[in-house]
């Protein structure tokens, strides 16, 4: 059985930068440990990077969330330093879910997601992938995710459960 671990948007701006939270900071060591275990088990790992350009504030997302973040090639756009030794494959994506991920994960039986933010990019990618592959096993590790708020994190986890994604 083949498995892939998707590490969603573990970037500086979402951890302790312009959109960071103490909950996001707190999951970094847990995500590092999760990746170490996954690598030891032979699990493939793919990172995503939320990627925006200098004109972000003029985009639809920028108008609804007028906080510049993950502007390529800023420090905030970079993956957190503690995670860099484990980065082998990276998918740059724009708003929310990656339309490139389905092709990259099509050969895996199990798809696990961790990262930021539970209530935006984690849920978007999980549901996009579940729609593409309704018969694959999907897992979200709630201890390795953080949302914009504690309540929105919990709500996103419940929504994913309702869509037959296993939340551990």
UniProtKB/TrEMBL annotation:
Pathway membership: Cofactor biosynthesis; nicotinate biosynthesis; nicotinate from nicotinamide: step 1/1
Enzyme Commission code(s) on record: 3.5.1.19
SUPFAM superfamilies per the UniProt record, alphabetical: Isochorismatase-like hydrolases
Biological process, per Gene Ontology: pyridine nucleotide biosynthetic process
Keyword tags: Hydrolase, Metal-binding, Pyridine nucleotide biosynthesis
A Pfam family reported for this protein in Swiss-Prot or TrEMBL: Isochorismatase
KW Glycoprotein (keyword) present: no
Any one GO molecular function term: nicotinamidase activity
Domain Isochorismatase-like: 4-163
UniProt KW Transmembrane keyword: no
PANTHER family: LD05707P, PYRAZINAMIDASE/NICOTINAMIDASE
Family per similarity comment: Belongs to the isochorismatase family.
Name of this protein: nicotinamidase
């Amino acid at each position: 059985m083949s498995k892939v671990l998707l590490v969603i948007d573990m970037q500086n701006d979402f951890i302790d930068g312009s959109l960071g939270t103490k909950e996001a900071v707190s999951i970094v060591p847990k995500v590092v440990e999760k990746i170490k275990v996954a690598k030891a088990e032979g699990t493939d790992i793919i990172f995503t990077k939320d990627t925006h350009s200098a004109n972000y504030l003029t985009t639809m997302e920028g108008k609804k969330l007028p906080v510049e973040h993950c502007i390529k090639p800023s420090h905030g756009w970079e993956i957190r330093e503690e995670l860099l030794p484990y980065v082998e494959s990276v998918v740059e994506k724009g708003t929310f879910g990656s339309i490139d991920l389905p092709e990259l994960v099509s050969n895996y039986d199990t798809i696990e997601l961790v990262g930021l933010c539970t209530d935006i990019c984690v849920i978007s990618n999980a549901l996009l992938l579940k729609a593409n592959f309704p018969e694959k096993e999907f897992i979200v590790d709630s201890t390795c995710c953080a949302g914009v708020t504690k309540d929105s994190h919990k709500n996103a986890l419940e929504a994913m459960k309702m869509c037959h994604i296993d939340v551990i």
